[in-house]
Write a structure and sequence with these properties.
Length: 168
């Protein structure tokens, strides 16, 4: 009786050991797969963190460019206001000149009128030079604004591209 139990136990032990021996390669393969998948996951997390950093940097650059764009826009508005003021001054000078011409003509002082007109013409030319300088500044500021707007648009596209990559 004792030997039968021992024999049965030996058979059961042998069968159990055989099943365990057969399961070892599959367990090792599964462990290798888990390790490989963990490595892929780690790489994906690192890439996501890198893209998150790029996205943050792109957003910071976008905010900086937006602030610069706002500043340039404000400066452009100031130049335009100055230019409009110069135009108004030029109109006033023309009106004053015409009034002076009419007054001089009435009084018959042709020589004095010529001197005054030369003086007014000189002042008017100075005003024209000032207007030209203001216009050149406005055109420069407008070109800067266009360049800043283009950079801002490119930065927006880069941010959108990075966000779409991050989502993927």
């Amino acid at each position: 009786h004792w030997s039968i139990n021992r024999s049965e136990l030996a058979d059961q032990l042998s069968q159990s050991l055989t099943r365990i021996a057969q399961a070892i390669p599959a367990a090792i393969f599964a462990q290798d797969e888990v390790t490989s998948l963990q490595s892929v996951l780690d790489e994906a997390q690192n890439e996501a963190a890198r893209k998150q950093g790029l996205l943050h940097a792109a957003r910071e650059e976008l905010l900086s460019k937006q602030a610069l764009l706002n500043k340039v826009t404000g400066e452009l508005e100031e130049v335009r206001a100055g230019l409009e003021k110069e135009r108004m001054i030029s109109r006033v000078i023309r009106c004053e000149k015409q009034a002076m011409e009419a007054e001089i003509e009435e009084q018959g002082h042709r020589a004095a009128a010529v001197d005054a007109l030369k003086h007014e013409a000189s002042q008017a030319w100075q005003e024209v030079d000032t207007l030209r300088e203001s216009l050149a500044k406005a055109q420069g500021a407008e070109a800067g604004l266009k360049a800043a707007t283009l950079k801002l648009s490119e930065s927006n596209e880069e941010v959108q591209r990075l966000e779409s990559e991050l989502v993927v």
